[in-house]
Amino acid sequence: MPLDSTMWDLVRDRLAPIDVLTVDAPGFGGSPSGAELQERYGRPEPSLEVFVEAIRESLDELEVERVVLGGMSMGGTVAATFAQTYPERVAGLALMDTNIGVDDADHAAIRRESIALCEEGKGYESVKEWSNFLVSPASPESVRQSLDRRFRLFNSASLAWLQRALLDRDSAIGALTAIDGPILLERGADDATCSFALLQQWKELAPRAKIIEIPGAGHFVADEQPEVLAKALADFYRQAA
């Protein structure tokens, strides 16, 4: 979230001269819709595997064999699914403010409510509170306003597709043991959706993983603390590359 590659603008500019590729989710930015990608890859239902195949195809077209891969929020789930599917193509994995397991009952119910609103053309209404309760109290109002502006641009049908893909996903916990490179586990210190205890559980599966908490940030660290996050990612890239 917010689902198109502009969410990384403040971080990407600080990562030069690293060659950074950022991704628009299906139906957002310049990407084809989820339905188009389903047809391309012969998938009958929305799924993260569709997203993964689109990333794989893009890397093939760019002749990129191996990447240091990162994802935040939903993007972290996609990144882990990619790493679990194509571990030989992942030199390092950075998972940020995410859940790579499956939804519990409460989160699944919230996701179904979001899908129902999106089906009524109310994609913005399904996410409008995110800019309040998912942002750190320490973040300036300008961060909330920027997020809200982007949420208002969400296409309801595209958001519904992604929520369905997430609702029906398999666990991607296997990514932690599938790759042989370093792993970074990051959370904003004020992110209520991604606990430190959860990251500790993941680290038990992959002891080499490094956990970092970024103070003064909630769920949207790329917007709230871009300079701190960029430094952490640059250091991680140097370790993995």
From TrEMBL:
This is AB hydrolase-1 domain-containing protein. Residues 3-232 form the AB hydrolase-1 domain. InterPro entries: AB_hydrolase_1, AB_hydrolase_fold, AB_hydrolase_sf, Epox_hydrolase-like. GO terms for molecular function: catalytic activity. Transmembrane segments: none annotated. One of its GO terms (cellular component) is membrane.
